[in-house]
Each structure stands twice: as structure tokens, then as C-alpha cells.
Amino acid sequence: MTTLADRAAAAAGRTDTTTSDEAAPAYEPPTVTALAPDLSAYEPGPDDPPMVPVHMAWLRVRKDIRSIEKGEEYNDGYSRYNFRGVDATVTAFAPVTLRHGVNVIPRQVDATYRDTKTAKGKATRECTVSVTWHIIGPMGDVIVAQSQGEALDSGDKGTAKAQSVALRVLLLNGGLVPTGDPDPGSSTIDRGEANVRSAVSYLDEITDPQTSAGRLRQIHHELKQSQQLGALVTNEVGNEEAVGDMVVRIGKERAAGGGQ
Q1: Are 203 and 252 in the same domain?
Q2: What is the pLDDT along the chain (260 residues), one digit of tens a residue?
Q3: Helices 54-64 and 86-99, interaxial angle, to 10°?
Q4: Residue 7 lies in a domain
């Protein structure tokens, strides 16, 4: 028995050999090329790195990075410390990874942003990134790693800064790089009075909607301990207010609004 479609095809001089009872051809997924190329027949040149698996190449990188000292200083008036910066870290790793045929490539960047203010009231944007990295060896095989970075910026450089921090974290942590500093256990320090945190330094945390009621109570206690409850600060609407009153007021407002 022919169908209307069969008779129409015959009238047009076409022959359709497919019937409605025949099964459709099975789906064949496209061929996916492996990430690591086939280098079995590759002959390294005189300037090429040794063709070893990525975990061995990364081990050789770690072996050649002796240490990176904390040669840069941070001082914002509240705290002061030495650290290893992004440039110093990359400068140490770049020639060594090149010599051993290792590439470090960001594979995926997940970023979140939050508008905030500095202790002095300047508007800034906070960027936090989680970066997935591919550490690629000379043979094309890969170590997958992740690191995080955070940065504040008043312009448009927050994302770049946060990614640079994430790169530094990856290289230092993934490379287990020592500082070259004396062991902390080799000396002792007599503990003195702790530095008192200023009332204005609490402003960002007090006005942050994510700050819990429990943390607000703790801030109030800390200000009471340092005898700063009456210190005048500029509140969220630009008026002067005693910081202790501000903490209590914001706590009550959030409680009335159903906040935790």
C-alpha cells in the first residue's frame, strides 16, 4: 500500500526507497580531539625542553625555584608587613617554566563583585575571582588547579588585580615556594599590648548588609573595650553619629526588617 507521499513522488519522477517503518539512522557523536596531542613520533630539537610528563616537568620547576623572599612592604597606616608581590613571583617562575616547557594558562574565571567603601568613605568595588588553571607540560598533558584572588579598586582594574593575586597564589602554593625567612620557631617575642583598632575602621563592616547581628554585637563589645563607643564617625547618610549608637541603631533596623 502506497502513501500519498509515495504517489506524489512517483508522479514527479522521484523514487523514495525509505518507508515509514524503517528506523532512523543511529546518532554518531562528533569526534573530539584529545587535549594532549600525539607526540610519539616527535623528535625534540636541541633547544627544546625534555619531553617528560607534566607532573615531572612541574617537579623540575619546583626544584629550580629555590625561594622567593618577602621583599615588598605594605603600610597603610594601620598595619605594616612584608610580602611577595605578583611581579616578583612571576619574574622567578617565568624563565624556569620556559626552560622546562611548562605553560600556565587560565582556563576559566568566575568573578563576583560588590560595591563597598574604604574606611575614609571612598567608593570602591570589590572583586573576588575563582580561576581554574591548566598547567600544561611539554608533552601537552595537563594538571588542573584552582586558586582564588580578591581585590579592591576605585576604577576599572579590580578584575585584573584579583586575577593577578590568584596567579600569585597558584604559583606560590602549587610550587610550595619557601620565603627564605628564618623559622618562626627560632625566636620568641614578648607579647605587648595589642594595637587598638580605630572606630572609623569598623564603618565598612557596620554598614555592610551581610554583617550578622552577632557580629554587630561583637563590634559593640570591642568598641566598649577600647572605650570608643562615643567616638564620632560619619554614618551612611553623611551625618556625624557616635559609633556605638550607630551599631545599636543599625542592629535594631535589621532586626525589625527580619535580618539575622
Answers
A1: yes
A2: 556 556 655 655 655 544 445 555 565 654 444 455 666 667 777 788 999 999 999 999 999 998 999 988 888 777 788 899 999 999 999 999 999 999 999 999 999 999 988 777 888 999 999 999 999 999 999 999 999 999 999 888 999 999 999 999 999 999 999 887 777 666 665 655 667 788 888 988 898 888 888 889 899 988 988 889 999 988 888 888 999 999 999 988 888 876 54
A3: 130
A4: no
Q: Which residues 6+ apart lie within 8 Å of 203 measured at CB?
A: 117, 119, 121, 233, 234
Please enumerate in sequence order all residues whose Cβ is within 8 A of that of 165, keeping only pairs 6 or more positions apart, or say none: 86, 149, 150, 151
In a domain? residue 80? yes
A 10 A CB-CB count for 141 gives 18
Are 218 and 193 in contact by the 8 Å Cβ rule? The answer is: no
Does the model's pTM come out above 0.85? no
